[in-house]
Amino acid sequence: MKKLIVGAMAVAMVASLFVVSGKIQGQQSPAGGKDLPHKVGLIDMAQVFKDYEKFKTLREELQAKIEQSDTQAKQMLAEMQALQEQAKSGQLKQGSPEYQQIEGQLITKKGQLEAFRQVQQREFLRKESEIYKQVYLEVQDMVSKFAEHFNYTLIVRFNRSKVDEAENPQEVIQSMNRQVVYHRGQDDITPRIVDALNGSYKQ
Is the CB of residue 106 less than 8 Å from the CB of residue 15? Predict the structure, then answer.
């Protein structure tokens, strides 16, 4: 459990689900009361999660708790090993009350260790899911405000990495299958969203 349970896979999953429709309600062009023309923006959600300082902090805090749990589990395991060594030392006769007592303690501690690990794993999965949900909602809210302020009608997730940066065949194929084939530099709002999130977090 030394590494976060969901990790980068969860970032990819969240990014694949992220499409924000930011259509401006009630706004009209000065000309004739018609809706504003479409203005599309792009965002790399994986990059946002990677560069958002609050997300990093929350993950580091969770990682510290996981390591603390690992330390506790190792202590429980060390106690079991000490009992096993005592049972195998030859000082106790097999089948004697003292030997049976140690066997009973081993069975109890083994059950406690397994239960501890299961409970901790479920708890860390829950906490990590909460982190992703919290950050996702914050990003979504920031994107909505940004879109409304700058009159974007649609924000679409995409991958900022370039095809020429791919290093293996699988990455090349994934890059070629991306939905966005061309975009202008100003269409990528990723850096501005990251700056806005980090600025708000620092305050």
Answer: no
Task: Determine if the pTM surpasses 0.70.
Answer: yes
Q: Beta strand pairing status for 40-43 and 19-20?
A: unpaired
DSSP the chain: --S-SSHHHHHHHHHHH-EE--PPSS---TTTSPPPPP-EEEE-HHHHHHH-HHHHHHHHHHHHHHHHHHHHHHHHHHHHHHHHHHHHSSSS-TTSHHHHHHHHHHHHHHHHHHHHHHHHHHHHHHHHHHHHHHHHHHHHHHHHHHHHHTT-SEEEE-----GGG--SHHHHHHHHT-S-----GGGB-HHHHHHHHHHHHH-
Q: pLDDT tens across 30-45, in order?
A: 444 466 788 999 999 9
pLDDT of residue 121: 97
Average pLDDT of the chain, as a whole number? 84
Q: Determine the distance from the C-alpha atom of residue 182 to the mean position of all C-alpha atoms in its chain, rounded to a whole number.
A: 29
Q: What is the pLDDT of residue 3?
A: 53
* 86 token code pair: 């005592």
Checking if the pLDDT of 26 tops 60, the result is no
C-alpha 79/C-alpha 75 separation (Å) is 6
